Amino acid sequence: MAALDGIRIIDLTQWEAGTSCTQLLAWLGADVIKIEPPGRGEPGRAMLADHADRDSFYFLMFNANKKAITLDLKAPRGRELFERLVAGADVVAENFAYGVLEQLGLGYEKLRAIKDDIIHASIKGYGSWGPHRDYKSFDMIAQATGGVLAVNGTFDTPPLKPGVTFGDSGTGVHLALAILAAYIERERTGRGQYVEVSMQDAMVNFCRTAFVAQYLTGGMPAIRYGNRVGLLSPTDLYPCLGGGPNDHVYIMVSTKRMWHGVLRAIGRADLVGDERFEEQRDRNNHWDDVWEMIAGWTRTQDKHAAMRRMSEEGVPCGAVYDSTDVFRDEHLKARDMIVPLEHPERGVMEFPGNPIKMGNTPKTTLRAAPKLGRDNDEVYRDLLGLDGAEIEQLRRDGVI
Q1: In what order do the strands lie in the sheet with 8-11?
Q2: Neighbours of 300 (CB within 10 A)
Q3: Whole-angstrom Cα distance, residue 97 to residue 103?
Q4: Active site residues
């Protein structure tokens, strides 16, 4: 059995923040039933689409291992069917703007009236209370208001948008944890509950180190150090052979032993014990000299070779992987983080796998994200007991 086998989640999520949460739970074995509007589906299906008649790679990336049904929640018959699905579920997950479910008459109080131990899991841009609760948000808005952009970039440039969608997927991971915590509590007490994660709140959580380093110790806004970690020379980005934009390695040194490893790796073991560089404060005072010394060596090395050599000396060092490097990396493939996935329209593709590895449960088998309404017959027949004629009538009426 998979870890979450037997847990049923009604998935009303869209875009990325919510879908990344429910996909993670589906990877762990939960029965996730994705509900979308008939005809068009959730907006992520068309996001960054390369073909008008195919689901986008964006959608495929966040909806693997789910079932998909269509249902018009605005139609009386649609709400009736939704309530019947809720009655047989453990969790309802959504990331609508504040008040949307309430306008449909399907807020938490209604869900709890249908099933008193239901867990209603919600992502909101700013949460369901507070002065900004009605404001809308997307990933980068959450990063801006949560402190992320202010610490990203260099000292002499404006804040810089990260290339990673922390605001979406990072919030999704937080909500997955909240769902599991609520489920464990329900097992103890028999009580369901409403749980939410605000995208802004999640970003504040991610920024704790920057806040400690700057605001809490000096009362000042965080300084943008670029690729350097302040007061930790030679922690920095270094250019490698080839000169391309991603031909770099990142080296992080936090102990004297690691510093000695760097010197051995670059062929300068003669500098072990040199008073100019031996202590952290000395290296900080000679940051540019230390950087040039190491860069003089890394410029002669392929980034992967430099990573191997530093690692052999016990120095944390990572080549800057671009997307091609990630998908070709043998280590990631060995850990089932890059796996083949067969899609009925796109054929066999490689996709990122489940990062959570568990010793006593079967490893995750990825299944392609479902086409719109793929599981209508199965869900409405097997879970709600509708016959073929009823299901066909629902289609003709535009309810599913």
Answers
A1: 67-70, 31-36, 8-11, 91-94, 119-124, 193-198
A2: 12
A3: 11
A4: 168
Neighbours of 39 (CB within 10 A): 10
Kindly tell me the sign of the dihedral angle through the C-alpha atoms of 169, 174, 175, 181: positive
398: left (phi over 0), alpha (psi -120 to 50) or beta: left
Give dist(CA 189, CA 288) in Å, integer.
59
**pLDDT, mean of each 10-residue run, the chain (400 residues):** 95 96 97 96 88 88 96 95 97 95 94 97 95 94 94 89 94 98 97 97 92 68 83 95 95 96 97 94 94 97 97 97 95 94 89 93 90 95 95 95
Can you list the domains of the chain with their CATH numbers? Answer: 8-206+332-396 (3.40.50.10540), 248-319 (3.30.1540.10)
The pLDDT value recorded for residue 181 is: 98
pTM: 0.91
> What amino acid is encoded at 180 in this protein?
L
pLDDT of residue 48: 80
Burial class, 287, CB count within 10 angstroms (exposed 0-12 / middle 13-18 / buried 19+): middle
What per-residue confidence (pLDDT) applies to 40?
87
Predicted pLDDT of residue 215: 65
